[in-house]
Amino acid sequence: MQLKNKKVLALVDHDFEDLELWYPVLRLREEGAQVDLIGKEANHKYIGKYGVPVESDFAFTDVNDADYDAILVPGGWAPDKLRRFPEVLDMVRNMNQAKKPIGQICHAGWVLISANILNGKTVTSTPGIKDDMTNAGATWVDEPVVVDEHLVSSRRPPDLPDYLREFINVLANK
After folding, report:
1. Is-above-0.90 flag for pTM?
2. From the DSSP assignment, how many helices (H) and strands (E) are in the chain?
3. Start and end of every DJ-1/PfpI domain (predicted)?
């Protein structure tokens, strides 16, 4: 249990990519991390793209990101909604400033783009937002997982094992 005593925020909103939320949450919990699910509302049921529900533990405004060691942004269509909340962008910026691990997969890059933290970073994502990532100043590569300091990015569900291996490694070494 290499992540004992680590606390991770996982962002949620409707239409998250089911595997891109649940696989990381379960793997991190298996490694001993506390993973809190946060959304616009506390104790609210959010439904994934394929119908798998999740209930948020807290609202964005209920948590202090300084109390956490990392943040996860799932893909799907949820990132397009999540990036509209100033609280979410502030959390991502704060995590970036503190050099805490930030995990993003698939369309989750939209949140990091809106938080304006990608300039000069090397990342990956779904190819569908490659132009968005490069226009934000990032160098985009087509790899299953990319680690650039504390930022861990991945492309899509088949890459989840590689993504979580690297994210767990980065978090364990913080």
Report:
1. yes
2. 6, 11
3. 6-168
Characterize 39-72 residue by residue with b for buried, 16 or more Cβ atoms within 10 angstroms of its Cβ, and e for exposed. Answer: bbebebebebbeeeebebbeebeebebeebbbbb
State the residue for tokens 């104790």: 43
- Give the active site residue among 14, 44, 107, 150: 107
Q: What amino acid occupies position 7?
A: K
Q: Does domain 7-172 have CATH number 3.30.2350.10?
A: no
Q: How do the domains of the chain map onto residue ranges? A: 7-172
For the question of residue 150 being annotated catalytic, the response is no
Confidence class for position 77, pLDDT limits 50, 70, 90: very high
Tell me the two tokens of residue 134: 């490069």
At residue 1, the pLDDT reads 84
State the Cα–Cα distance between residues 113 and 154, nearest whole angstrom. 15
Dihedral-angle region of residue 76 (phi above 0 means left; psi in -120 to 50 means alpha; beta otherwise): left
